[in-house]
Amino acid sequence: MPAPVQIRHLVGGDWHSGRGDSLLSVNPAHPGIVVAEGRGTDASDVHAAIAAATAASPAWAGTPIHQRGALLLAAADVVDRNAEAWGLELATEEGKTKAEGIGEVRRAAQILRYYGNEGDRQAGEIYASPRAGEQILITRKPLGVVGVITPFNFPIAIPAWKIAPALVYGNTVVWKPASTVPLLAIRFAEALTAAGLPAGVLNLLIGDADVGDALVSHAGIDAITFTGSTGVGRRIAAAGATRGVPVQAEMGGKNAAVVLDDADVTLAVEQVMLGAFRSTGQKCTATSRLIVTAGIAEQFLGELLARVAALRVGDPTDDATQMGPVVSDPARTSITSGINTASRQGATVLAGGVPYSDGPLADGYFVAPTVVDVGSASVDLWTDELFGPVLAVRRADTADEAFALANDSEFGLSAAVFTQDVTRALQAVDRIDVGVLHINSESAGADPHVPFGGAKKSGLGPKEQGGAAREFFTHTTTVYLRGGRPGA
Ligand code: UN1
């Protein structure tokens, strides 16, 4: 068992141990094992980090985008070289399976590569002018110092998809990751510094919510990008609005899988399993609601429950494991209490729903894969995001009713529809109000070159990734360009 890694913060190019409260990152499968330890940062560090990012800003913004991109490409190589080791650390720290952990690290490298190549893509636009001898150019400029606040559940991929575009478009960054995953944050910052990122361009502060609060309310921050809970996202958006800085907030989801009578059942069962239980359901894009039409409901649920019963839950570093623990004890407690509340409110637990009280899983933060039939009861589980391996089920008589139930949420991040009828698929595209729609694949997933984010109350501000990222991380200058007097 490796010795715990010392928690370190990066400010102005120097790594140092913090002066804040002590921090412990434990293995959620074996909470007695410490993965990283040390001290968090404090408000004085926030000030120093923003000062360093501000000082580094003019030179970085003035560096040609091609060179900024080259640094990201070099960092991608470092990340890829370490994919196996860091993927294992990720599984040990966060709890997703080792295969998912390695996959996520490789995805971070892919994202770095995508933005690394941005320098060689189109930089702006030219419009025709209504006046002779003039063209109108739209050019892009960085915003300045960006505050980046990231969640525990994708401890390297989400930081990559925020920090890579922030940097390539010429911003400097002060980053506060979730304090439950300091090790992967340190690894990602190490990759960028090893690639030669100049001092102060990326600053890493590991700490709790008070560090995040200090960051978002600091006068030196020019923009904030956040992924996490709806409550925190709205508070951050309010703080940004008070200070007049743009906020990009990616928040909750209560994503439905809609299985229609004509679905390919084997495919749909497999994809719903992945959507609901991969990463232990701890994704804002996870499938947390299932709507199945009456003609297929019994067969579908029968096959699904058989798969749930066979799902191998265990230590995420074990190759045979298909689902690991949730990230922490408070997460386990709140998920379990959400299931208990649903039972009290009249829902029926079809699978899981009981704690592991003995055996090897009892000590870790494990929650059994759980399927709850909501029926016609009014149940919080139908509306509230639990962020765990819990699937709430309702039946619908018709496809129309199923689509309406999919929209029965204040959130609109993603959805999955299973049908072999292209007419139904196109109706789903029209009617289901989400930012990401999957036809015949699970509700989670994102690609670096296409927009990612939610409709309705799932997100605020421009979407992430692809061309959408440029919208957030730059502002435009509209340039009216004329030469001298025509003919002079
Ligand atoms: C994915 O579906 O692979 O926090 C990514 C989350 C999302 C990312 C989902 N922002 O779960």
List descriptors.
Aldehyde Dehydrogenase, Chain A, domain 1; Aldehyde Dehydrogenase, Chain A, domain 2; 23% strand; Ald_DH_N
Sum this structure up briefly.
This protein has 488 residues and is an alpha/beta fold. It contains 15 helices and 23 strands.
What is the class of the largest domain in the CATH system?
A: Alpha Beta
For the largest beta sheet, what order do the strands appear in spatially? Answer: 15-16-17-14-13-19-20
* Corresponding CATH architecture of the largest domain: 3-Layer(aba) Sandwich
Classify the secondary structure makeup into a structural class: alpha/beta
Kindly provide the radius of gyration, computed on alpha-carbon positions and rounded to a whole number of angstroms: 23 Å
Percentage of β-strand residues: 15-25%
Helical content class:
25-40%
Shape category: globular
* Helix segment tally: 15
The number of distinct structural domains comes to 2
Number of strands: 23
Q: What's the rounded overall pLDDT mean? A: 96
* Cofactors, ions and other ligands in the entry: 2-aminohexanedioic acid
Name the CATH superfamily assignment of the largest domain.
Aldehyde Dehydrogenase, Chain A, domain 1
End-to-end C-alpha gap: 78 Å
Contiguous uncertain segments of 5+ residues: none
Largest sheet: 7 strands, mixed
- CATH domain fold name of the largest domain: Aldehyde Dehydrogenase, Chain A, domain 1
Organism: Mycolicibacterium hippocampi
GO molecular function, one term: aldehyde dehydrogenase (NAD+) activity
Family: Belongs to the aldehyde dehydrogenase family.
EC number: 1.2.1.3
